[in-house]
Please model this.
Amino acid sequence: MLEKRVVVCLDVRDGRTTKGVRFRDNVDIGDPVEMARFYYEEGADELVFYDITASSERRRIRLDVVRRVAEAIFIPFSVGGGISTVAEMREVLLAGAEKVSVNSPAVRDPDIIGRGAALYGRQCIVLSMDVLRDPTMPSGYRVVIDGGRTPTDLDALAWAREAQGRGAGEIVLNSIDADGTRAGYELAATRMVSEAVEIPVVASGGAGAPEHLLAVLRDAKADAALIASMVHDGTFRIAEIKEVLARGGVPVRRAPRFGP
Model:
């Protein structure tokens, strides 16, 4: 069985790491470069960097911060936030990212997924999708964009399948209802999407305890779990989380990496 991944998320605004609840009331929690290096040394399997206001502000991502983070770590590094052209994807990859994450721009221009996959390989292209519970949608979940500010007519399950067909190599499924609450992941949506696509699914939003990761990785069939608040405030360490996963029968990489 393939090892499941623990992925640390850094939401960045104005060059600083920030954290909120349900995409609101964000507060400054530190320097992203220092935090990235810390989590790399702690044993994170991957790091995700989101420039959270780039899309809503219609501006380009902060490449200077991307470069400095990439120089500080030696684990896979995914970057997202306002990436709307294949030229911008190239800039992010050249700045040191292994993957580029598209969200709102992909909804506005779905062809960017295929164009990016054709140029850089589908393993580089991640669809990040923010969803809200909505019983009027066929799957029960609606896709929203612009940092949760703009609802769309897209059904979450239909969009996940379409993205896979267009060439996405991975999907990050973020529940806005659960984001920052520490009450656990959106298990129903995660399992639904995980069972419907053949590419890896990363669960995001709601992690508050190691048992939440155990549930989403083992029971909801996610390939990876994204965490933020529960480690940002020092409540849990990554080794502690992985110990719970291992005891629960989830295969994980145990030894941290130091150096390339």
The mean pLDDT is 90.
